[in-house]
Design brief:
Blueprint (H helix, E strand, L loop, with lengths): L15 H23 L2 H8 L3 H7 L3 H24 L5 H18 L1 H8 L7 H25 L4 H24 L6 H16 L7
Helix pairs in contact: 1-2, 1-4, 1-6, 4-5, 4-7, 5-6, 5-8, 5-9, 7-8, 8-9
Length: 206
């Protein structure tokens, strides 16, 4: 039964934040099924069990709805990765935790990852800007550790941070395409070993 039409016949007025989450869940479902260009606000409203005016009260249009959903997914992934990077001062364990976190995010919600990195709207300037901000933040977190431990310059550390962030993203996306043919732990372990063997060549400076 819809939250808009309970047995009493009176509409339930959800708190704004709760309604927003409901609409984003519905948008996620429709965008995954149809892609951005194939999605329609009518269908999103139907899946959310709300009227179109209610949907437009929260989001002026489909593009704004997609951008809000993108920001939610990027925020979740950023929190997960930053937590992994800051979870230990042992760099070997840190690399392992970070690679594992990236694979875990995809395993928990592969569709969220596809919405973020494989959308048919990725050439949109606002989407590209948000993706670049995420990539820069992830790389900067890694670079901060590298620069703090070695005598490398900030620019050199940032280049290595970008390389490691790219390694995590590209390898995890490929793993997703294997549809479970390779166990997630085995996949994450392989990439961790590759990353650690490279970054460990830049030892801590005492």
């Amino acid at each position: 039964m819809s939250s808009e039409a309970p047995a009493s016949g009176k509409a339930v007025r959800l708190p704004r934040d709760e309604r927003r989450r409901q609409l984003l869940r519905a948008a996620h479902e429709v965008f995954v099924a149809n892609g951005y260009h194939g999605a329609a606000m009518d269908e999103i409203a139907e899946v959310a069990h709300v009227s179109k005016p209610v949907l437009y009260q929260h989001f002026p249009g489909k593009r704004e709805l997609y951008l809000a959903l993108l920001e939610n997914h990027l925020a979740s992934l950023t929190d997960l990765l930053v937590e992994a990077i800051r979870s230990t001062t042992d760099n070997k364990q840190r690399v392992h935790a970070t690679m594992r976190a990236y694979f875990q995010f995809i395993a928990q919600d592969s569709q969220a990852h596809r919405i973020v990195f494989e959308s048919d709207l990725n050439n949109d300037p606002d989407v590209s800007r948000r993706l670049e901000a995420f990539n820069a933040h992830f790389a900067d977190e890694i670079a901060g550790v590298i620069a703090g431990d070695t005598r490398l310059s900030h620019l050199e550390a940032t280049l290595l941070g970008r390389a490691m962030a790219g390694m995590a993203q590209v390898s995890a996306r490929y793993w997703l395409e294997t549809d479970g043919s390779l166990d997630i732990d085995a996949a994450a372990e392989l990439i961790y070993r590759l990353a650690w063997r490279g970054i460990s060549r830049f030892p801590k400076e005492i």
